[in-house]
Amino acid sequence: MIGKWTRKKERMKEQKTKQETETVEGQKKQQKKETETEISVEEYTELFFSGEEDVQLPMTTEMFNLAAEYKRLMFFYEAGIDQIVAKLQILNKEFQLNNDRNPIENIQYRVKSIESIQKKMEKMGVPLTRQNIVNCLHDVAGVRIICPFIKDVYQMGKMLLEQDDITYVKMKDYIREPKANGYRSLHLIVTVNVFFSNYKAKVPVELQLRTIAMNCWASLEHQLRYKKDFPTSEERHKELKICADMMASADERMQRLADELPGF
Ligand code: 0O2
């Protein structure tokens, strides 16, 4: 009796597996058929720009000139970033050798995109000229330093400022005084000496130093804020602030744990 039931169960199982395999094969064939469909470039444009008015595209020479100008100017700022990053890597390695841990978890950097420069200058009400970019913007070169603990943030900032080819310009301590939305970070504007082939220049760089937890909040908040349909209600602002405060509380507790370890 048991044998009969077992055989019946096995037959049902085999049938089910066969049906499932057939379904998967069918889906695969359908997908293959769809990807094999050939479309012309006219059909492609019709599909992707349907309903959009045809527009005059910018002159290629103008675009090339702007790109070349931007590249030349950004080379100056990129050199500043390279110097700062090299300094941070040295400090991180030295600290690791002496203390068996890294005070820097991650270094991110960027030069401001031309769109972002344009937007900021528009907001400031100044025309987009080379001179205005250099005089009005301090954050064309940006380096973000992500540290494990709050004390690491301040120590890294201090170590950089003590180097005699770095000049302090401005500080905004959003850790001691967080922004209304809960944003926390230590912002330092500095200049760093860069030796080019024929001259030495002081390149301005914005440093954003923050903990892993602060960075986690800032990254998520940035993603939410840049979603066009993110409702900016009072309730949502409060929720974001609560999240930021929770991160800050975790940072403080982790710091206390670290402080209990001698020589940490
Ligand atoms: P991006 O794309 O990061 O470059 P300033 O003229 O520099 O004194 P500003 O620009 O308001 O005045 O400087 P602030 O307040 O020091 O902040 C500049 C940068 O800090 C921002 O750059 C962000 O990277 C970061 N930041 C400031 N506030 C917030 C915040 O509430 N949330 C998040 N996620 N980041 C923030 P940009 O220019 O916005 O853009």
What does this structure look like?
The protein is an alpha+beta fold and 264 residues long. Helix content is 58%, strand content 16%. The protein is built from 8 helices and 5 strands, in the order H-H-H-E-H-H-E-H-E-E-E-H-H. Helix 7 runs antiparallel to helix 8. 19% of the residues are buried. The mean pLDDT is 89. Ligand 0O2 binds next to helix 7.
What does this entry show, briefly?
The chain is an alpha+beta fold.
Q: What characteristic shape results from the CA principal axes?
A: extended
**Residue windows where pLDDT falls under 50 for at least 5 positions:** none
Taken in chain order, the helices and strands follow as HHHEHHEHEEEHH
The ligands found in this model are: ligand 0O2
Strand arrangement, major sheet: 1-2-5-4-3
Query: By helix and strand content, what is the structural category?
Result: alpha+beta
Number of E-state strands: 5
Computed Rg: 28 Å
**Count of discrete alpha- or pi-helical segments spanning 4 or more residues:** 8
What is the helix fraction of residues, given as a range? 55-70%
Q: Mean of residue pLDDT?
A: 89
Ends apart, CA distance between termini: 71 Å
